[in-house]
Specification:
142 residues, 7 helices, 0% strand, N-utilizing Substance Protein B Homolog, Chain A, mainly alpha
Length: 142
């Protein structure tokens, strides 16, 4: 899997955090990664599967984000200047959590790559104005 595909999968699992208790995330991650066949957006199988290394990377990253969620959310509130987390769409919030985590805690991922990938995710999963919102907030971390 490419890093973009992995990031997309991480976003989808993080998005589910909005609807579940964080204590259930470890089991949810296992369930999400237990599929032997990756699905396209239309629900059709691709014939590809997650490698053990991909599964381990995805699971570790999600659990790290969940563990640091309060710190990440505090940073999002700080840079959003007056926007409460409850006002930010669930998809945008999941994208921001992933990007803020990468920017603050993963030195090997360049800052601009994290922002670009977050904007690309917002283009796919959010409304048309979300990409500007996500870009503007993340740029404040520079």
């Amino acid at each position: 899997m490419t890093r973009r595909e992995i990031r997309d999968r991480i976003f989808k699992i993080l998005f589910s955090l909005s609807f579940q208790d964080a204590s259930e995330m470890e089991e949810q991650v296992k369930l999400a990664l237990s599929d032997t066949d990756l699905l396209t957006d239309t629900g059709e199988g691709t014939g590809d599967s997650y490698s053990d290394a991909d599964k381990a990377y995805i699971a570790k990253k999600i659990m790290d984000i969940v563990e640091k969620k309060d710190l990440i959310d505090a940073e999002i509130e700080r840079i959003s200047e007056g926007w409460k987390l409850a006002r930010i769409g669930k998809a945008e919030l999941a994208i921001l959590r992933l990007a803020v985590y990468e920017i603050l805690y993963e030195d090997e991922i360049p800052f601009k790559v994290s922002i670009n990938e977050a904007v690309e995710l917002s283009k796919v999963y959010c409304d048309t104005e979300a990409k500007g919102f996500v870009n503007a907030l993340l740029a404040k971390l520079a």
